[in-house]
Every structure is written in structure tokens, then in C-alpha cells.
Amino acid sequence: MTPAWALSFSLLRKLLLLLFTITTLLFFLVRVAGDPATMLAGPEADPAQIAAVRSAYGLDRPLPLQYLAYLGQLVQLDFGRSLATGREVSQLIAEAMPATLLLASLAMGVTLVVSIPLGVWLGGAPLRGARRWVTAVIFVLQGIPGFVIGLLLIQWLAIGSNLLPSLGFGGPRTWILPSLTLASFLMPQLVRVIAANVTEALGAPYVRTARALGASEVRVLWAHVLPNALLGATALVGTQFAFLLSGSVISESIYAWPGIGLLLIDSTRTLDFPVMQAIALVVALCVFGANATSELLVGRLNPRLRHEAQRA
Amino acid sequence: MRKMILLRGVAVAALCAVTLLTSCARAPTIERDVLRVGLVSLPTMPGNPFSSIGVPSIYTWAALFDSLTFVTADGRVLPWLATQWRQLDARTWEFALRRDVYFHNGVEFDARAVVFAVEYVTSEAARRESLAREMAGLEMAVAVDRYTVRIRAREPSPAMPSWLALLPIVEPGAWQRLGREGFSQAPVGTGPYRLIRWRRDGADLQAAPRGWRPARLGQLQLRVIPDSIARVQALQSNAIDVAVSLGPDDQVLLAQSGARLDFGPSASVLGLTFVLTRLRPGHPLLDRRVRQALNHAIDKQAYVQAIFGGRTRIATQPGTAAVVGFDSTLPAYEYDPARARSLLAEAGFADGFTFAAEIAIGAGAADAAVYQQVAADLRRVNVDLRLLVIPLTQFVTNVQNNSWSHEAFGMNYNAERSLDALRFTRLHSCLARRPWYCDSKLTPLIAEAQRAADGAERARLVGQVMRRYRDEAPAIWLHEIAYVQGVARGIGGFAQHNSYILYERLERAASERAQ
Fold this sequence. Notes:
heterodimer, B: alpha+beta, 20 strands, about 25% strand, globular
């Protein structure tokens, strides 16, 4: 079996295990949160009314039967219908997903554009003067919850200076604040990782060799040090994708961004099981996809891992 | 050299950022004919007005649907889709309907629509609708002619015109054609705005061309902004014109932008209710004197002043001044810690005691602050109140099953929107399926009040019910709940009645329209 096949097989095995675990856990855990029939019927409902709601949504069947029906639906890629609205869950997710993906992509773009140069700059020389201050600011930023940063950005750029809209999803102007907010979840950590990697790589023998061969400092930094520093960061970006998606719940809530996060908040409010389950599954798949991609990328980018895989 | 290149890089990046921001740097333009409202959420089933009642759904229904009558914040019953009514016998009322009213799809409103609404809410198919419970007292409706309808209740119903304010009228043809789910996606009512489309983040509506309540602004945008701080900021930054469900302390933030808070009275009273039926024998709260002592221990006027700026009233009974049967002669429990201590001592609890209350935060404006103040005041009379925040789902389950784990819970005594004072007794009396308070002397009084055919007699009996609740103190009566809405500068005509916003009256000031 070639290394590529072995890796694909390993990923497929992990994916199947993840899907089974996630679907099973989700199915039972969301039911611990409460009975959606009670929420749909309201606090003053009598047992007959609650029973009518349960029956209308198939919640009166035994749990194992509901679980089997759920698995059967999933195999056919059918997420069922929303208990609250009666609409196809897949349709709801298809409508919401593009907005969240756009937000996540923008945030990731901002994160990379800012973090890479900043990380290289911070790691490229001893921590003195401006670098020391910037590092301190990054430390502080890492400790501030994302929603606080979001609210501060609105206060500063939307209310204070009237530069940008404070909410909505209506074109590039409305993208800036949500993506900056979401980027703030990842950026400080990525900057620190890149800076640490750059500092470490600068002491490596191949850097001494490059310098001995007459390479300029800029070339050493950008052509030799950065690619190696980014290897660790690539893995981090993959593993942090989950934080990006969970951060989108906060960002979407603050900016009324019509994505998966807002849909999740709404479905949690009404204990809309099918929607909650589907969103969690889709998010899990996205996180898995991001992790798998970063794993593949690291494997491709790191010659040492590549050679080890070939030898194996 | 390296430093120079890095500095240049930073300078270029900064320049790009500044360019990007300045290219966007224009004040948000206000579309002059559009009204933008920030909501907590859309109704659970967005276009089905039978599926939920009250806040937050009411903010959407108010734009789309009408009912036969309308109850104002001060309890007056106004003609709405019905122009006149008269009582034929104890159980039957006849309503004359407004003419030249059209549904959003052009179909004329007439008696068939009323008959359909009554038949639906009383049908087996409607059992899962929240409104079916409210309308359980209805028996049938018949069309006398095209514009006259007779509605009969199961019991004598002197207050029928007021509780029909809850019954939304839908276009029967559209409902039958589309079904419950389909209608929810494409609702058709007679309200001032008709739906253009639901969006993931709200809804776009347009003034109904033949609306009998003509809207002053051509479009209505409902925006879902779940976070209350985000709603305040949206109002500050002119991104919306009205923000619902704000807190009284938001006034400070809004002051600079010229926006204001509107405190709308509700027909609900906040009470810290005792789970009396589940207390072990000998528990202090089973003694009426102890419950009265706790009522005397809270400085309600002080917190109403401090938290609400004095813009709501302290509760004297489990109903507000607007509900039928409100007894204005009933005094509130006076703040008197000495009297509270004396009552506690009289009951044998001079050293105080401890109890816990389950609360769901967010049900009312500033409720967390109020509960904390209550706990602080009780500590002054040696009563230790522990506050336990529970999720809303748990709260609803506890209300349905009386499955409270502790001695008390915070809850509204709600008479909305019909302003029927006895509405709360369905939960807070022996009439409840699993009551937490069951006063055997009260039950016949409630039944007598419900049966009373004459309005004045009913009001008198309801007054007696109120007095009994006040004196028995099955709860600490706190304050009348206020709906706090934010209104942007330049928006005129704002009016709310028991959380029902009259959207059609909202307009932009001339200076705003000129922008």
C-alpha cells in the first residue's frame, strides 16, 4: 500500500469512527437538554397538549426507535425537518452555511495576513523595544474574550467614528467587523506560535549555513526560516478551526450574521433537535476536514515526514 | 537594511488598512421609507400566529395579523376587525365586522375568516398550538351574515371581547391551501405589513397596499439580533430604528445617540413564588406571617427607583392596574424591616432561615438585578435567599410538572394580552394540574368569578380574589413588569400596548427623511 493510500485509509477510518461517535453522542446528549415538546407547547400546556405535540413530531416513539430512524435518515443524507418551522433541515443549513464559510474564510484570511508578518517580525530579533510592547499587547489580546473585542470594535468603528455598519450581511462593508472579531480569536495564538518557531529556526544549523553561503538576512528570514516556522503553524490552524467555528456563534450573534451560529442559537432556544444535531454534525465534519487537510499539508510540506512516510 | 524593509512592509500594510477603511468611510445611509426593528428572535414557527403568543412572537404578529378587538395598555377594549359587539346571552356575543378590509392576498375579510379561526383553534388539529389553550373557553362561531358573526363560549364570558384580542385572523383560503407549515412560510393576514420574504436574520415586509391600518413607512425590516448589547449598539450606530427588549440601564448608553427608551406597561407582575404544596411540614414558608414578613422586608420602591428610574410601579397584588378586577384600594406591603422581624419572631423564626429560589434570567427587564436586591433586603431580616439560575427549558418543565427542586421560583403573573385577571389562576391556584399553591377557600371564589355573567359582578369577585392573594402572600409581590424598547432619534409615533407595537404609526421625522 502506498503512503498516500495508507494515509487516506487512516483518515477514512477516523472519519467513520467520528461520524458514528458524534451522531450517537449528539442524539442522546441533546435529549438530556430537555423535551422539545414542553418548549413547543409552552409552560401552561396540559399533558394532552404536550402529548399532541410529541405525537405530531414523532417524539412519542421509544428512544431506540427514534435513534434507528435517525441513523436511517442520515445514511440517506436526510437531516429531517425542523421541529419549529417544519422546513427541511438540510435546506436551512444550505442557506446558512455560505454566510458562515464566508465569515470563516475572511477571518482566516485576516488572521494569516496579519499573523505571518507580525510573527516573523516578533521572532526575527531579540525581544526589546517595540517588540516587547507588541508582545505584551498580544498577550493581553489573547486573554480578552472575543465578544468583548467585537463590542469594542462596534463601539469604536461603528458608533464612535461611524465608519462601518454595526450589523448585517449586506456587502463588503458589513464583512469587516465580523471578520476582524472572529480573527481576534485565532490571531494572538498564531502570532505567538510563528514568532516562537521563527526564533527557534533562526538558531538552526541550516540558517548558519545559509548565512555562511552569503544569503542576506531578508532571504534567510523569508526563504529559509519562514517555511519551517509555518509548518507548526499549519498544524495549529487546522486544530484551531474548531475555535473559529465556535467563535462564529459569538460573532454571528453580535453582528446578526445569518450563518450557522445564529441558526444554532435559534434552534437551541426551542430545543429543535434535528437542527441542533445537523449543525453539530456539519461542524464536526468541517473540523475533521480542516484537521485532515492540515495533516496532509504538513505531510506534504515537511520533507522529513515525507521521507519517513516513504521509508515506512 | 533588514529593518528598513520590515518598516516599509509595515508602512505598506498600514496604508492598505487605512485605504480600506476610508474607502468604506461613509456614514450609514438611512433609507427614508424603511423602518428597521431589532428583535430577539422571530417566532418559533415564523408565520403561524396560533403557534405562540406573547413576547417575542408578538413583535412579528403585530405587523402581519389583526384580531377582532384590541386591548390598550390601560385596559380599554377597542374596535379592531370588529367594530361593534353586544352580548346576546351569558355565553354568546355578536360582533359586527369592519368592512372594506382586505387580506394581503387581496381576499376580502368577512365572517368566514372569523368562523374559520374559531373552528381551527377549537379543533383537534390545533391541540399543539399554544393559542388553543388560551381559546379553550370558545365553543363555536357562526356567520349571521357576511359581516356579522356570533361566537359562543363554553362558560359565561362577560370578558369575551377582551380575550378575543388574542385570536389572530388568518386568510382561511391560504391556510387551507398551504397547510400549517406552508402558511407559516407565506402568512396572509390583514396587518399593516405583508411579508415579502423570511430571511435567516429576520424578515422583509412591505406596507399592505389596501391595509385598513395604513402604514406610514413603506417597508419594515425585522432583524434578529439575539444579543441585547448588540441591539443597543445597533441603535446607537443608527443600524436600526427600534430595539425591543432592552434593559432600563441602557438609557445611559443610548443618551449620547439621542435614542430613547420607551417603558411600556404590561399586564404582568413579577413575583417570587413559593412552592407551598411541596414544603415539608413545619417549614417557615408555610406560615402566612412569614410570607407577609418577607413581603414587608423588601424595599420595592427603592429598587424600582434605582433600577427602573421609577418608571414602573410596585405590585400590590398579582395583577396590574389595567386588568379587570384590579383592586386599587389594596395597599402594597409597606417596607418595614422592623415589622418583618416582628412577624418572623411571632411565627417562631426570629433567627431567620434559609431558602432557595430557581430563576430563569432574561424573562423580564433587569430581573437579575431585582432578584439580587431582593436577596440583599431579605438578609437584613436574617433570611438567607440563595438564587439558582436555571435554563429556560428546565424552567418550563418545572412549571408544567411542579418539579421545582427548591422552595421558590421567580415568575410572572401574566394577564396578557386579554387583560383577564383570572388568567394567572390557571397556574397559581388549585386549578393547576400540579399546583404549587392550593388555597381551598380561593377555589370556589375563582370559579364564581369565572361563571359571573355580569361584567361588574365579575370585576367585584375578581377584586376579592386579588385581595385574598395579596393577604395570603403565596409570593413576594415585586413590581409590574415593564416592556423596555429603544427608539432611535427621529422616529415618531411609537406606541406599545402590552408589548404590541403599532408599527403603522411609526414615522421618520422630516430631518431624518431628508438624509
